[in-house]
């Protein structure tokens, strides 16, 4: 291979945002403008990415870039769903994206995937701008090709007021994420403040300014990062796909160096990295030729960073999305070790905990990180679909709070679905991490309350009642009286005792509003029937009665954390009563 030399590559720009906020529409508008412009550097279609050459950017931006010259060859936009691509495209724990555009519908504001996207951007410390999309949907908005400042000022007063209210809401929400933001033309230092560009992907308003800001930021702050080697290529797997006539292929982003069709490459898998030869480097047809369905790809001999490419090779079945790709150089062993270190999970797993499955290494790590922040233990974390074995393993765990699988952006296999119908297990299968964590918060609250109810029912619980003297419904056979539950609870079958420890009988039945109930809780007034006593003899109005608890139950209740403060107080009184006659009771 020829000696490497430095050159400037185009920045990789990831487009993130919530569903239907216009990520694809923004790219579609840029692609459409570029194809129509028919410049010498016409737009290039890549796998999972779109390259917009600098000549095309000059053409779209017009007077905005008049007299300005950039060393960048253009911009490479990632086409795959924003948050998914962002966690997939990673190098040494960081994201491969140099810049990002967060697309937000100005009328809807922040949604789950918007918050998730901001979290990812902050985690990877990636510079980004906000495209406040769909300004054309603001009632009464007048379309204009003027720069944003003029365009906003020229709107009718009520329209301008509506726009500003929506903008300030957005600035406030971004502030809650501990970030400063403002309209781009008010910003002196983009390193301290996130720029907001009002746009419409439908009319094209603001798109030239968006491109202008991106190339300006890249030229000013990323120049060193964009000077790269022309040596052996480095990249990251976007997707593993079956292609008719080609078998298993990988879609990849190459972010450094050169890949030739004659090269051998090393790729990360779930196990050991594989070393394989390239059968074909395949690039989609340019956008203005894509309408011809006879040939989907051009077979090319080499590609240079940064670009998206499809690679056909033997033995790709075990390759995982997010895995690194390296062209084999002189030090194969060193490359293999480097790839192994990048494909292993960066977190220690626990002996006990939940199972996490995800589509890529980056997604997996993001989900583990979110789980750890909530104090959730993780005992197994893997890339791939949910299998029958995962269901069996999760259901077999002893702790009911660990009978759980987080499944991000993957499928539950048919055998696993069948097993799930009879398994005591919950699976959260979502394509937004934010939603999985929200679902978990709801589930854990319900599950803990359910378990507490079950634990409480395992033991006779302390209860204290007062005999209401004006409510004597029957004197004996059985006695039926009205009582108020002062603390704890009473249930059918519980024995009752007086403050001196004498047993007065068992509760035969409980009625509330003339309907039979199983138990009565603190604060309730109910009628109870008691066998074997006569009102006026064994019990009198205003008597305080306690539930008679077996010594073993009392001991366990004192050790366990299942009683509230009032119930603990009643339990302590029961201990006092019992120990008057047996000083070792409950020990």
Essential attributes:
alpha+beta; Rossmann fold; Elongation Factor Tu (Ef-tu), domain 3; eight-stranded mixed beta sheet; eight-stranded antiparallel beta sheet; 15 helices; 30% helix
Overview of the structural elements:
- There is one protein chain.
- The protein is α+β, with helices and mostly antiparallel strands and 587 residues long.
- It folds into four domains: 6-227, P-loop containing nucleotide triphosphate hydrolases (Rossmann fold), CATH 3.40.50.300; 231-343, Translation factors (Elongation Factor Tu (Ef-tu), domain 3, Beta Barrel); 354-457, Translation initiation factor IF- 2, domain 3 (Rossmann fold, 3-Layer(aba) Sandwich), CATH 3.40.50.10050; 463-579, Elongation Factor Tu (Ef-tu), domain 3, CATH 2.40.30.
- It contains 15 helices and 34 strands.
- Strands 3-4-5-2-8-9-11-10 form an eight-stranded mixed sheet, with helices on both faces.
- It is elongated, with a radius of gyration of 34 Å.
């Amino acid at each position: 291979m020829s000696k490497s030399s430095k050159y400037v590559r185009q920045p990789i720009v990831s487009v993130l945002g919530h569903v239907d906020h216009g990520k694809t529409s923004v790219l579609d508008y840029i692609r459409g403008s570029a194809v129509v412009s028919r410049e010498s550097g016409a737009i290039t279609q890549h796998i999972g990415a779109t390259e917009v050459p600098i000549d095309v950017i000059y053409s779209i931006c017009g007077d905005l870039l008049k007299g300005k010259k950039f060393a960048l060859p253009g911009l490479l936009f990632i086409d795959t769903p924003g948050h998914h691509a962002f966690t997939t495209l990673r190098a040494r724990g960081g994201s491969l994206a140099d810049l990002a555009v967060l697309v937000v519908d100005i009328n809807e504001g922040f949604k789950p995937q918007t918050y998730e996207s901001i979290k990812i951007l902050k985690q990877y410390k990636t510079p980004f701008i906000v495209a406040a999309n769909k300004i054309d949907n603001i009632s009464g908005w007048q379309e204009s090709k003027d720069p944003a400042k003029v365009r906003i000022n020229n709107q009718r007063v009520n329209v301008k007021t509506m726009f500003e209210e929506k903008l300030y809401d957005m600035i406030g929400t971004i502030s809650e994420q501990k970030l400063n933001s403002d309209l781009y033309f008010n910003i002196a230092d983009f390193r301290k403040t996130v720029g907001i560009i009002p746009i419409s992907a439908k009319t094209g308003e603001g798109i030239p300014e968006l491109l202008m800001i991106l190339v300006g930021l890249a030229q000013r702050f990323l120049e060193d990062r964009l000077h790269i080697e022309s040596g052996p290529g480095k990249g990251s797997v976007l997707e593993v796909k079956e292609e008719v006539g080609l078998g298993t292929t990988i879609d990849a982003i190459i972010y450094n160096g050169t890949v030739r069709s004659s090269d051998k490459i090393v790729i990360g898998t779930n196990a050991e990295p594989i070393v394989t030869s390239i059968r074909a480097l395949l690039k989609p047809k340019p956008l203005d030729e894509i309408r011809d369905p006879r040939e989907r790809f051009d077979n090319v001999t080499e590609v240079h960073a940064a670009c998206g490419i499809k690679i056909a090779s033997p033995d790709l079945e075990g390759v995982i999305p997010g895995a690194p790709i390296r062209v084999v150089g002189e030090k194969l062993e060193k490359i293999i070790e480097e790839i192994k270190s990048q494909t292993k999970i960066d977190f220690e797993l626990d002996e006990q905990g939940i199972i996490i499955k995800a589509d890529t290494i980056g997604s997996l790590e993001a989900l583990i990180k979110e789980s750890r922040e909530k104090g959730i233990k993780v005992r197994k974390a893997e890339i791939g679909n949910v299998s029958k074995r995962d269901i069996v393993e999760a259901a077999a765990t002893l702790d009911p709070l660990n009978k759980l699988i987080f499944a991000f952006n993957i499928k539950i296999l048919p055998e696993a679905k069948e097993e799930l119908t009879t398994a005591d297990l919950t699976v959260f299968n979502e394509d937004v991490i934010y939603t999985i964590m929200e679902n978990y918060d709801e589930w854990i609250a319900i599950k803990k309350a359910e378990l507490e109810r079950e634990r409480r029912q395992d033991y006779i619980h302390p209860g204290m009642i007062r005999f209401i003297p004006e409510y004597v419904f029957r004197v004996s056979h059985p006695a039926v009286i009205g009582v108020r539950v002062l603390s704890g609870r009473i249930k059918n079958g519980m024995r009752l005792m007086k403050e001196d420890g004498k047993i007065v009988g068992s509760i035969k039945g409980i009625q509330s509003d003339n309907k039979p109930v199983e138990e009565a809780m603190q604060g309730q007034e109910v009628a109870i029937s008691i066998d074997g006593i006569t009102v006026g003899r064994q019990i009198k109005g205003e008597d305080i009665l306690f539930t008679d608890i077996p010594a073993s139950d009392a001991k366990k209740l004192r050790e366990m954390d299942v009683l509230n403060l009032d119930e603990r107080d009643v339990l302590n009184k029961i201990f006092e009563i019992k120990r008057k006659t047996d000083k070792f009771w409950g020990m």
